[in-house]
Amino acid sequence: MRLANPGAAMKTIPVVGYGPAHGYLYIHSTPRVMAKNIEWSLDEALGHSCNLKWSLQSLNPGGLRSELSWNGLIGTGSRLASVLRGWHYLIFEIHEVAAQGGEGAMYMHTPELGLFHSAVGPHGDLLINENQINRILKENMSTSKIVEELENFVGKAWDNALEPFRLGREKSLAATDKLSV
Asked: CA-CA distances (angstroms) from residue 18 to 72, 73, 85, 124?
């Protein structure tokens, strides 16, 4: 068999998925001493320097918070979650939005609950597939147990744990808006 371009270099397959994606990383709380190490980990995962701007986290004395908007390939959110989940005391969430209407992803992490992941539809809805629902219905006879399992699939415990940090972020942004001249 003869190759059409025998001297051409082979394409390298990207480390993460095909296609563009973008997203947001919210580091809701981390101890001050870990901030630079987290930044270095993110730099390595993203392939470039991210230079996070840190601010005090009022809900966690001695803690810091930061945000990052990123662009990359589909799967970058997963890579970031994998890098960050190993840091103890770190509270974060990651939202990945796939371009062209594909499925995105959401990751939420607290030290107490661990890492939560869900696929996200193009309109921002968490996706539960029919196999997951069938398993819940087959294994659980009581309505309360079915509700509990469905709440696990949509990350209710993580959502409840992160909500005070989200509200704190909004208050912080509102205070910053009022202080700007």
From this structure: 10, 6, 24, 21
CA nearest to 29, candidates 52, 68, 59 = 59
Give exposure, 51-73, as e/b (b: 16+ Cβ within 10 Å). ebebeebeebeebbbbebebebb
User: What is the layout of strands, in order, in the sheet containing 104-110?
Assistant: 55-57, 63-73, 20-31, 91-98, 104-110, 114-120
Residue 67 bridge partners (DSSP): 26
- pLDDT top residue among 168 and 179: 168
Q: Give me Rg for the CA atoms of the chain.
A: 20
CA dist., res. 141 & res. 159, Å (int) = 26
pTM of the model: 0.81
Contact 118, 153 (CB under 8 A): yes
DSSP structural state of residue 126: B
Token couple for 47: 């392939």
Q: Phi and psi dihedrals of 8, rounded to 5? A: -75, 145
